[in-house]
Amino acid sequence: MFNSVAWQSLAYHAQCQLWRRAFPIAVCSKYFEPLKSNKFIRRHIMLGPQQSFSKTFFFRQLFDQESSTYTYLLADINSKEAVLIDPVLEQAIRDANLIKELGFSLKYAINTHMHADHITGSGVLKKMIPGCKSIISKSSGANADIKLEPHDVIEFGSFKLDARPTPGHTNGCVTYVAEDQGIAFTGDTLLIRGCGRTDFQEGDAATLYESVHNQIFSLPENFRLFPAHDYKGHMSTTVWEEKRYNPRLTKPKNEFIDLMNNLNLPYPKKIDVSVPANKVCGIQD
Ligand SMILES: N[C@@H](CCC(=O)N[C@@H](CSS)C(=O)NCC(=O)O)C(=O)O
């Protein structure tokens, strides 16, 4: 099957053929041959056609200003089954109201990892919405209704998320990939033009580097990536963009490790309350 990148490439070549018929070969070679290998054309082909969502796939990006955290509401419009990725405690009422308003039924409150900067909303959402189950990876060491093994699949309606293990920021970090929709939720593993820090919890720069290169940069280049945080006003990126412009992850591994080990960032303000609370997905007795 042709995807949209292939179609656009085909359309470009067909256009070249038409011009070749209309004009002498010399003119065509002069203007089109250099273009064909030109970065502009390749950039246009890769940047332009990001895969569009299925008609029944619902996607909403939500933001918590205090922690600069993105939460994602995904749903199947037909079955009404929904999931929330990385809900934030302080936004649980906002999220529950939106889900109710849209007539969705929240099946899972999913965590990409055990966050250190804010308390997850998954515990409170479970109390607010009967039937909702919390999810985190088994390797996070946290408690939840469902503890994922690598590559477990989460289903909601007719859609799926593949849990790709991407340790490095923490041991239990997962990138959730919706293959059919051409999107991935990278948590704190890959941030837009950055990445999660590796200086606490079980952080390890070499592991994070391998995770990104093997599990995220191996996705098709037109896949859109949605992180758990952004501190500069960006909302999403693509595999293509990050493979070229990520200032950390485009470096050789040894330089990356050196850079990550010398970031000297202050610890997140809420780390001492967030980590213990997130060990039980936000619910404390
Ligand atoms: N100032 C914030 C914490 C900012 C921070 O450390 N962010 C983390 C992700 S949340 S643990 C991170 O990995 N940042 C990477 C970077 O390069 O900044 C607070 O006090 O909460």
What this model shows, in words?
- By secondary structure, the chain is of the alpha/beta class.
- It has a single domain, classed as Ribonuclease Z/Hydroxyacylglutathione hydrolase-like (Metallo-beta-lactamase, Chain A, 4-Layer Sandwich), CATH 3.60.15.
- It contains nine helices and 14 strands.
- The strands form three sheets. The protein has a six-stranded mixed β-sheet.
- It is globular.
- The chain binds ligand L3IBWBLD.
- The ligand N[C@@H](CCC(=O)N[C@@H](CSS)C(=O)NCC(=O)O)C(=O)O binds at residues 67, 116-117, 188, 194, 196-197, 229, 265, 268-270.
Write the layout of secondary structure elements.
Elements: H1 4-22, H2 25-36, H3 39-47, E1 57-64, E2 69-76, E3 81-85, H4 92-101, E4 105-110, H5 122-128, E5 133-137, E6 146-148, E7 153-156, E8 159-165, E9 174-178, E10 183-187, E11 190-191, E12 194-195, H6 205-216, E13 224-227, E14 237-238, H7 239-245, H8 253-260, H9 271-278
Parallel strand pairs: 3-4, 4-5, 5-6, 10-13
Antiparallel strand pairs: 1-2, 2-3, 7-8, 8-9, 9-10, 11-12, 13-14
The protein binds the ligand N[C@@H](CCC(=O)N[C@@H](CSS)C(=O)NCC(=O)O)C(=O)O.
Features:
285 residues, alpha/beta, Metallo-beta-lactamase, Chain A, six-stranded mixed beta sheet, 14 strands, 32% helix, disordered N terminus, binds ligand L3IBWBLD, acetylation, metal ion binding, mitochondrion, Mito_Persulfide_Diox
